[in-house]
């Protein structure tokens, strides 16, 4: 199966300038192609990859600066644009800003990329037009190279090889019959139905303080000034370390979970909607904007979506099945008797069942994770129902019965 391997590049000054130039050309091609697609859509017509690729060849004759970048790199940019427009819609695809977008470009011909190991810590890859580039050999390639992507993050250049490691997804998990539910939260990143708490701090107190000071300096700096660029680079270095820690945490957590369970059940969360701003419009401003802003930051900081992607990726190597179920009332329902009401959850961490004759007490996140695990056998329908008997939009059964319908 296909897998990614990322390494840190050690470029010469000339190679770094070439990479910067390639990235700028790809950004210009993306923005020009997106503008053309939007103009066609406004006239009720369509534009796709094939005619744009043909027009790119003509544009290279009129604009010689386009020839500085390899042709197949620019073609891959148009291919990525075509996929983005098909998946999200032409008018929802974003422009690539010179300031906000990190340069990246892809070499699709893996058979033209040669990689050799120079020693214990260093390797060398031969890339079109860039020549031989050195990189830190932090892990073996482990497969045949299909493509290579060069990108810049937090002031450093990286190369990511897409390799075919010849691995095959097992037909059966090593421990069949095992299952786990995962409750993702803002206090603890992930809590499993087995009672395991997976969490860590992604930014230290010192880094948070320095980042706040850089934000203040950035706000006071003049737009386009050298000090503003230096401050932005310092902020990116801090956030680069934070995102690397988050990615490492999610990868390790996902690897441990799928190794022990044949079925992993998650809540079907609409993270983009949950982390949307509450500011509203000028005419109709939202309420409790500051509280919602803090909640949004906590949701995004815990990396809910990244953990989900890591679980799906790691499950390919163990044969684990990852399913998502409706999240309605999982935090209010008692995992012992099934009684659901808002008063069951007394606080963020305390769950006490209020049903007569039950009185079940547990950590609220563990109780929710157990409910998620129990719902793992029920698929999420198009209307978001928990099952055939009750819609997710209906209120839970009251105190008279003490139980929710099965």
UniProtKB/TrEMBL annotation:
Every Probable transposase IS891/IS1136/IS1341 domain range: 170-276
Region (Disordered): 387-406
Annotated Cas12f1-like TNB domain residues: 304-372
Xref: InterPro entries: Cas12f1-like_TNB, Transposase, Transposase_put_HTH
Pfam families: Cas12f1-like_TNB (PF07282), HTH_OrfB_IS605 (PF12323), OrfB_IS605 (PF01385)
UniProtKB keywords: DNA recombination, DNA-binding, Metal-binding, Transposition, Zinc
Family: In the C-terminal section; belongs to the transposase 35 family.
UniProt protein name: Transposase
Source organism (scientific name): Streptomyces antnestii
